Task: inverse folding
């Protein structure tokens, strides 16, 4: 059995037209479908209509996660689930998340065409606010579904304009009635673009994802003293901007030291200087730090080293530096069984496959706390650029990944037991 590559491409293009915008710098058309926005609502209604057209029974839970169910021969046993997300960052392409949702839907359409009914029911899911781009918490919908984040806490989250999740869900008509706590499926498998350069550089067709690396975020608030840029001698300044810059350089040194192997990543993505005037030494800087490593224990050591770096720099620059851990997720190992099934399918289809650790967070890591779970990665062009309108996986690359997804889902859906 093979999926219909043209139908998959057309379906990615159709969803990509919803929330489309033209990037000013490049002229390339990208996607902007922030969670629970008008565009997200439109995208959701489009996918729900596609699900219904494929004969699926659709349910929506209280955090807006959507599930399309295809009955099995033995309809009471645990279902096999596949999916991802359709919300996007403000400057997205059309593949991140959408490939996982529309790919899973394409698998079910392929089974419909072949008149194949699997033993277990199959469910296509899309989860709310995976990106965290609007309400600040990534994997929000799937985290609520597995019980990591309580529903009431999720409801109260606010965006920059003070709008809250619950009202925004209601406004787009996706505040469902199904219990948000998901009953454990038999297994969960997600197809996703790699969002990095490794698979393409190695000429690999599909990535067998072994897990997700550990992630730690800090929010830094550095306080010094505002002063006149012309009259204040350098040695009398307490400049939090300089301290922030030194932390940023220290992050790179930490990685280059090699103390934590060659897989540590460290980024300062936000710096906000106050008052932010050209001729005033800033008095306050808010900055962010993002560090990641495939091994939790190593990340923990790097974080401890970082905290002593903060203290040293603050003392030397005569500023106050406080840090708050704003996110922390441990490394997640995906199911060896799912990894084996991905490898077997790739081999049977004569595709080159390679094991890879995910550098980004995904809904699958939440589902992995409920059931055996795993991912299939698809390479991307232009060094796998993502969260950018240039994001591109070719129809061939997408079809290879979704064909593997087809094999893995059907194998899992024939497994015995409850
Ligand atoms: Zn994604």
Result:
């Amino acid at each position: 059995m093979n999926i219909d590559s043209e139908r998959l491409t057309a379906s990615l293009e159709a969803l990509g037209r919803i929330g489309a915008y033209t990037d000013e710098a490049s002229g390339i058309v990208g996607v902007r479908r922030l969670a629970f926005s008008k565009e997200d609502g439109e995208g959701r209604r489009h996918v729900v209509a596609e699900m219904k057209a494929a004969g699926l029974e659709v349910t929506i839970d209280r955090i807006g996660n959507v599930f399309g169910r295809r009955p099995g021969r033995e309809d009471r046993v645990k279902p096999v689930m596949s999916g991802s997300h359709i919300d996007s960052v403000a400057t997205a392409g059309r593949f991140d998340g959408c490939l996982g949702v529309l790919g899973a839907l394409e698998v079910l359409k392929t089974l419909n065409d072949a008149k194949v009914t699997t033993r277990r029911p199959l469910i296509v899911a899309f989860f709310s606010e995976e990106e965290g781009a609007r309400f600040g918490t990534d994997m929000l919908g799937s985290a609520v579904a597995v019980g990591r984040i309580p529903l009431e806490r999720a409801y109260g989250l606010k965006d920059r304009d003070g709008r809250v999740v619950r009202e925004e869900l209601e406004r787009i008509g996706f505040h469902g009635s199904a219990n948000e706590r998901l009953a454990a499926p038999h297994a969960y498998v997600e197809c996703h673009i790699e969002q990095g350069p490794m698979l393409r550089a190695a000429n690999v067709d599909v990535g067998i994802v072994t897990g997700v690396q550990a992630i730690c975020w800090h929010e830094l608030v550095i306080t010094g003293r505002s002063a006149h840029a012309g009259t204040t001698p350098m040695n009398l300044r307490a400049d939090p901007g300089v301290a922030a810059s030194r932390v940023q350089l220290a992050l790179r040194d930490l990685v280059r030291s090699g103390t934590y192997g060659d897989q540590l990543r460290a980024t300062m993505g936000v710096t906000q200087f106050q008052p932010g005037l050209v001729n005033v030494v800033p008095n306050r800087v808010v900055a962010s730090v993002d560090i990641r490593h495939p091994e939790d224990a190593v990340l923990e050591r790097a974080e401890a080293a970082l905290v002593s770096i903060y203290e040293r720099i603050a003392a030397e620059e005569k500023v106050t530096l406080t840090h708050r851990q704003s996110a922390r997720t441990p490394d997640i190992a995906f199911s060896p069984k799912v990894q084996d099934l991905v490898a077997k399918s790739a081999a049977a289809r004569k595709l080159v496959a390679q094991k890879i650790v995910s550098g980004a967070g995904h809904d699958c890591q939440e589902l992995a706390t409920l059931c055996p779970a795993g991912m299939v990665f698809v390479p991307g062009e232009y060094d796998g650029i993502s969260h950018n309108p240039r994001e591109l996986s070719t129809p061939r690359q997408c079809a290879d990944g979704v064909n593997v997804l087809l094999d893995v889902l059907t194998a899992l859906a024939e497994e015995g037991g409850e």
